[in-house]
Amino acid sequence: MDRRRFLKTTGSGTFAAIGVGAAISPLWSAAAEKTSNDRILVVLQLSGGNDGLNTIVPFSDDAYKRNRLTLAYNKSNVLSINDYLGFHPSLGGLAKLFEQRHLAVIQGVGYPNPNRSHFESMDLWHTAHGMGRSTGWLGRWCDANRQVDAPSSIYVGRGVRPLALQSRSTVPLTVRKLDQFRLGGQEMRSLVEEASAASTDDDDLLGLVAGSLATAAKADRQLSEAMNLTGEGGYPSSGLGQDLRTVATMIRANMPARIYYVTLDGFDTHANQRDGHAALLQQFASSLQSFCDDLQSDNLLDQVMIMSFSEFGRRVKENGSQGTDHGVAGPMFLAGGAVQSGVVGAHPSLTDLDDGDLKYHTDYRSVYATILENWLGLPTEATSPAEEIIAGNFPALPNLVTDS
Amino acid sequence: MNVLTSQWTDEEILNAWQPWHETTGDAAVFQFAHAHHLIRRAGFGANTQRIEQLAELGLAEAVKSLMAPPDAASFDAEADAMIRTSLVLGSTDHLADWWLYRMLNDPFAVREKATLFWHGHFCTGRDKVPDARLLLTQNDLLREHALGSFAQMVKRVSRDAAMLIYLDSTENQKTRPNENYAREIMELFCLGIGNYSERDIKELARCFTGWEVRRQRFRFSPSAHDTDEKEILGSRGNMDGDDAIDVVLQQPAASKHIARKLVSFYLTDDEVPEPVIESLAQVLLANQWEMGPTLAMLFSSQAFYSRHAVHRQVAGPLAWTLSWLKTLDVTGDLNVLRNDLELMGQVPLEPPNVKGWPGGSTWIDPSRMAARIAWVSRLSNNNLEPSNGLASWLSSQGMKDPASMVQWLEESLIGRPVSQRRKAALVAAVTSKSSLPDAFRAGVRLAGIMPEAHVF
């Protein structure tokens, strides 16, 4: 038998666009490289239900002191915003960002008919669409924009990829550590560069693979430079600190993702809340501040917005275990160079309650609409753009993003 | 409509599913390269001895032997015993590793590949169903029906606890019909978007009322079932779920939907002309939805060996890594492989969403290519030790000098000619080493980062 032959496949000499490639944009195809002034969203999820009352503290409210007999902070502990509100003592990083005019605090965020199950409430925040949807709000944004500039998203962490990123047209990437982009040294990178150099013999599919290999080599080079530039110092050694450091490195290496997602877990503080909650807030604030400082040092902060949220707040009255149980409304934070700094909305009343819970006044989907319309941007041909992504008409909040 | 349609000649379209003629002229004789293409697409690749054996058999006998391997039953028993033992530990990791083991070693590779196809069709992810027993039950179900009747499979899947949990369809009362499962039957499993109305979904959901999961098992609750008349896709009657599935599968869109998915899994990443899909749909119907004869026909068809299929598919992570391991006669550590596959974007039991792996260009996202580069780099450094030692294995493969080694790498491992410049690089890499095993390691590493290696 003569096996010294290959199948002839290239009879026609011309090659058409491949069907799948036309329908689905890979992250980072050569044609879809992010332009350097594209805006980036970083979502920072505080999992477990953060106690909003002890985050942005209404320290001078008598009802606060009455309801938080063991957990209350007073004027001398908090980092005052005004004579009613202050940051939790461990939120020095946020206070600094606020002082630098890079932080907006949105108070009283929630949604109607609140669900107190962690899982179900988190699903609502992720899908922005009621239960049972298989895509998330940010995934649908990618779907709506893929014709335009093939955006994609990256989850940095060790858990399950968040539903918020789930998309029908793009595959979000999970990054556990940057090593997964590294090719194992200079020699290997050179080999890849050599093997991936375009050849006139390549058809469209081979061209696609060669292009991807070349981009992988380029990413390896860019990341190795960016990793040197992203200093060890400043970032806390905690999980969130390191995850945000990874995000900063990828932004610096001009990775094409428009959305990054990180999480900090542990906010389900039913018992002995004080020390544990303080440590979490400390990790949250110092990591976020390091991240913003790092980006600012390279003039990158103007193109990045960080949004933090938690699936719900906690009840106004502390429980018998020096902790707090699942509640409803809470504050959200937006940080970044283009954020209009300040406190948005009134603190929900501590006396006009809904069955022991704060009443929300701002629907979380209005915050999403703000980000979609005024930050990430929507395809111009869409008629009621944000509505298609976050079921229902939720008006964007005015004056949260500075026009640049 | 698209450029490619015009590139199929009328004759190619007309004869797409006609038998490929082995004997019409020298150029069409079934050769090593044909057998290589066949076993990489129909199964998970093979070592050179097996590929040569298939080539000697000729196409008809080769397909026959793939569709009914003699040692399948004993392997089934062995594999079954293996998973029952490790299920005690309850981890879905073991289940995923066990399935990798099967894909790599099961003599009935055609059935295993088809099981993977159906896993990507009837997706269930272990993130949402972290129960190894339920997932094994579903995996066995898919394997049992992989080459059987699709109609039967849809009915069984509709009673599969893992599937119903995955699709949030464990509760389904006639007062509150759950539309999720009905929607996916229409949209993903049987018809495709555009072939039904929202009202059809609502009506179909009524047929499935009372189909529920209790204590991790499927249960039919007659009192929860809606016994009134329904109207689906123009058919009226007091239908239950099985009746409704029959109605759905009678739609012309159904056989075309499955035909299109078969073509994209087994043949090509390209769009193919509609008449080619339609004639495959006719074959499916003529075979009464039996997948075995349909696939046997597909593996023997002109389209399968045509320029529209050969080297027109980006190899997925499983297809690529497993066929390389098999051709290299090594197994590697499946637990480690699973971690690498995760970075490459395809782990068994972890489809990205209910639509399954989109494949094509999404396989070769640069970070995923980086994972392939890292894998082949480690494989060539640490894991190229066939059981009888690398040096004697190389000689058994006829690699006795750099020239024969380069030829082996190109023909058997990459499976297609590489560009002249890349071939020169391959020659340089192999000749730069003083021993044959070292030369082979360098050659495998370089071969793995050539674009040609990733397009089957």
Note the topology.
The complex is a heterodimer of chains A (404) and B (456).
Chain A: H1 19-23, E1 40-47, E2 56-57, H2 62-67, E3 79-80, E4 86-87, H3 92-99, E5 103-110, H4 118-127, H5 137-149, E6 153-156, E7 173-175, H6 186-196, H7 204-229, H8 239-252, E8 259-265, H9 273-297, E9 304-310, E10 330-336, E11 342-344, E12 362-363, H10 364-376, H11 385-389
Parallel strand pairs in A: 1-8, 1-9, 5-11, 5-12, 6-7, 6-8
Antiparallel strand pairs in A: 2-4, 3-4, 5-10, 9-10
Helix pairs in contact in A: 3-9, 6-7, 8-9
Chain B: H1 10-14, H2 32-42, H3 48-57, H4 59-67, H5 72-87, H6 92-105, H7 109-121, H8 132-145, H9 150-157, H10 161-166, H11 179-190, H12 198-207, E1 211-214, E2 217-220, E3 230-232, E4 235-237, H13 241-249, H14 252-267, H15 274-286, H16 291-299, H17 317-327, H18 334-344, H19 366-382, H20 390-396, H21 402-414, H22 420-431, H23 436-448
Antiparallel strand pairs in B: 1-2, 3-4
Helix pairs in contact in B: 2-3, 3-4, 5-6, 6-8, 7-8, 8-9, 11-12, 14-15, 18-19, 19-23, 21-22, 21-23, 22-23
Describe the structure.
- The complex is a heterodimer of chains A (404) and B (456).
- Chain A has 404 residues and is α/β, with parallel strands linked by helices.
- Chain A starts with 18 loop residues before the first helix and ends in a 15-residue tail after the last helix.
- The radius of gyration of chain A is 24 Å and the shape is elongated.
- Helices cover 34% and strands 14% of the residues of chain A.
- In chain A, the strands form two sheets. In chain A, strands 1, 5, 6, 7, 8, 9, 10, 11 and 12 form a nine-stranded mixed sheet that branches. In chain A, strands 2-4-3 form a three-stranded antiparallel sheet.
- A two-stranded antiparallel sheet of chain B has the order 1-2.
- Chains A and B meet through helix 1, helix 6 and helix 7 of A and helix 2, helix 3, helix 19 and helix 22 of B.
